[in-house]
Amino acid sequence: RILSSKRRSLAPEMVNTLMFVAANLDLFDLDRLISYHIDLAASALDMSVEETCDRFALVRVPIDVGSQSSLTSRLLEDKDAMEKLRAIANAACDPVLDFWVLGCDEVRLAGILGLPHVGSCDAANIVDSKSAARHIFREAKIRHPVGIEGLRSWEDVHIALRRLCDRCSAASFFIKLNFEEAGNGIATVERRHVGSPYREFCDAVSISKNIPFAEFTEQLELFGCVVEERVGDGLSECPSVKMFIDHQGKVKNIASHDQLMNDTVYTGSVFPARGAYRSSVIEAGYAIGEVIASKGIQGLFSVDFIAFNDGVEGSWNLWALEINVRKGATTHPYGWTRFLTGANYDPESGELIAESSPVVYISSEYIYSEGLRSLSVKDILDKIGSSGLLYSRESKNGILVHMASCMQDHGKIGVTAIAREHQSAQNMLDRLRDILRD
Question: What is the C-alpha separation between 281 and 316, in angstroms, rounded?
């Protein structure tokens, strides 16, 4: 995305508002999905669709099915696409590049175009890994699970877990790849297997998402991992706080969420996080943000926690788990909700406020139906529209389709249910699931 001051400006932390993923769709479905989002943007901006289209430029970058190349690396190889992007940048006023994930290819692209970019490329080495996050938590004096970082072999993992058994009483342990994302790279092992001989120990390790042991091992040896106690017992939640560091190093809170999880796999989010621990999560976000900012890191980051209720009403214990210096699955539902409703974030209450009332939402990455595999984007939008569930500017509530790239391959879509209170949002999601089952 190229930002230009000639267009309606958004705060730096909101620059991804109109971004969406449309991979694995044919061109007709892709164009229909783009038209749907442009129509939403036009309505929110009080502009005609034609005028909104004039402010929107699409550069198509073909990528072969099954390719492991990133979008940016493929863009750098495509002369026609690069020329189109350069022309867009040259026509913009004070343009800035913003990326979903910032790495070496993205910095190279910014250099070739001669444009500044949002964020810090060295974040992955300084902050954005499981091992680095544990160092940050210690420096910020934020409670986190007992663990050991910097491991690069199963032999190291086996030895480290034996040491952990002497330091804590956890019944099981996590083995997390340093650059794990969305549950891709988390393994578990029970305490009773830690003392087993090496081969028996390896056989007892359970890897999330059925990732082959050899593939997990390759990533472990390449990037390293951490081992941690599996904390807590009883009722639990998985809150997350979203923060932003500006170019002057000032840290600000943007949002908090409760993440919806299926074991270790992210499936959606609830905004805002529970009031019982929301302020504690935000406070921890500021403490961690100050440490990150002191290392010269800029841009968006989030911190994931786990919270356990100890049986006392309103009493929750928090542990920090990881830091993500990038946009993530909670970013686009938040950005679209804020953009569509015109809501402002109240840092005191941690709420989005529109027309003097709170705005809430529940997002889901797993609205599943086997029948989705045979439907087009138009079919889906027509089904949701005929049910009266599609987001309405007048009522400022309804269903937003924020992801359609997995329909044909996996039979699922991602949606955000925007409402004034959470039960209404949940009712919309329940109705949507019923409609898609019919």
Answer: 11
